[in-house]
Amino acid sequence: MKNRTDNGTHPGSPHDIVSLAVSFWTSKALLSAVELGVFATLAEKPRTAGELAADLGLRGRGTPDFLDVLVSIGLLDRSADGVYTNTPSATTYLNPARPDTDITGYLEYLNSAFPAWSQLSAALRTGGRLNRNEALAAAAEGGRETDRGGILLEADPDADTFGEAYATPQQVTGFVRAMTGFSLGAHLALTQAFDWSAVRTVVDVGCAEGGFLAHVLTAHDHLHGIGFDLAQVEDRFRKHVGISPAAGRATFTAGDFFHNPLPTADVIVMGHVLHDWNLNTKRMLIDKAYEALPPSGSLLIYEMLIDDERRARTTGMLTSLNVSLASAGGLGYTGAECRSWLKEAGFSQVRTQHLDGPDHMVVGVK
Ligand SMILES: C[S@@+](CC[C@H](N)C(=O)[O-])C[C@H]1O[C@@H](n2cnc3c(N)ncnc32)[C@H](O)[C@@H]1O
After folding, report:
1. Is residue 8 part of a domain?
2. Do 353 and 242 share a structural domain?
3. Can you give the three-state secondary structure of 76-113, one letter per residue?
4. Does residue 172 sit in the same domain as residue 187?
5. How much distance in Å is there from the Cα of 256 to the middle of ligand 1?
6. In a domain, 6, yes or no
7. Which atom of ligand 1 lies closest to the CA of 257?
8. Is 187 a residue of the active site?
9. Same-domain status, 210 and 312
10. Over the stretch 187-241, which tens digit does the pLDDT of each residue have?
């Protein structure tokens, strides 16, 4: 009989379904590896399993399996004499010592949301929301329940999504760091996918730490950028952008897009922002961008879009599902929906273009 492996299932075998069903084990092994400091420790120097276990305080007898799972998914290498090192991918993306490409902030955020996702069935039955603050507090309490309202909250269209997300300074830092990792693929792709040659100024609405501006201004040294976001984010923006080569060409404008006009520029970018809000707010933000742009200015929206047929892009749909569970009124959308909103707001030359993975941009010209 042919040997069965994860990569060589028989046609018609149940194994594909079983692999999917246990894929949360792989996900949690990766998230725990970040939480336990496996990659950060190996970035300092290679170690054997025994040395790693001693340095990280790991006593579980599954530790060698845990480490070799990370080898099998391509994030660690193990030499013939049992020494573990980070692979090039882990060295680039799972390494806090390289803040321009580090995505561990996003993985830490996903790890904190792991208990909340165990309530998916209940949330779908009741329409409730996952209580991110409870998950974060419970994580800080070693997994114990806290008195912050339980892990599932009643649906409340008037809830203040970002008021909750930014309840403490630590949560602001955790969230904006998470966004830098969540959006890195799109940010890197955007430096090339859009023609920046005739653009002089760009505003990033909902800029978080400023990951997009740091990359695009570094890649195009004629560009100047403004990050627009809530005032709580300003010092995180200054710190993150301040260490990039683009620091002198980026400024921050504190504002609330419900109450303030958007700053003007040749290009206005809104990335992973519209999905946080209901349809009325999505349209309000597109209208505000139209008002703020000069004639011939462009609005560039990037998002993990759902495919127009709603059949193929699992990550786009999962991202939308996650937002529906974590925000008061947010939902993802297809490229076709977004193009129609831009045309109705008055934009022309509206188009969609792939960026990286599930991320796409929708661009319209005023
Ligand atoms: C999902 S994050 C996206 C961050 C970033 N654009 C990216 O792609 O990684 C949404 C951003 O919108 C900002 N935001 C939320 N409400 C806002 C408001 N009322 N006015 C301005 N910015 C807001 C948040 O602070 C956060 O940085």
Report:
1. no
2. yes
3. EEECCCCEEEECHHHHHHCCCCCCCCCCHHHHHHHHHH
4. no
5. 10
6. no
7. 20
8. no
9. yes
10. 999 999 999 999 999 999 999 999 999 999 999 999 999 999 999 999 999 999 9
Tell whether 127 and 34 lie within a shared domain: no
Range of the domain at 41: 15-93
Q: Is the pLDDT of residue 333 over 50?
A: yes
> Which tops the pLDDT comparison, 271 or 328?
271
Q: What is the pLDDT of residues 263-299, one digit of tens each?
A: 999 999 999 999 999 999 999 999 999 999 999 999 9
Structural domains of the chain, count: 3
Is 352 part of a structural domain of the chain?
yes
Residues 228 and 356 in one domain: yes
Which among 103, 132, 161, 179 is the best mutation to test ligand 1's pocket, defined by most ligand atoms within 8 Å of the CB? 179
Region 336-354: mean pLDDT is 98
Looking at the predicted structure, is the pLDDT value of residue 134 above 70? no
In the 3-class helix/strand/coil scheme, how is 13-24 assigned residue by residue?
A: CCHHHHHHHCHH
State mean pLDDT over 16-23: 93
User: Does residue 172 have its Cβ closer than 6 Å to ligand 1?
Assistant: no
CA of 339 to the centre of ligand 1 (A): 21
In Å, how far are 32, 69, 76 from 94, measured between CA atoms? 12, 16, 11
- Is the distance from the beta carbon of residue 273 to the nearest atom of ligand 1 less than 6 Å? yes
User: Which contacts (CB < 8 Å, 24+ apart) does range 67-71 have?
Assistant: 67/38, 69/26, 69/29, 70/29, 70/30, 70/33, 70/38
Whose CA is closest to atom 3 on ligand 1?
272
Are 319 and 233 in a shared domain? yes
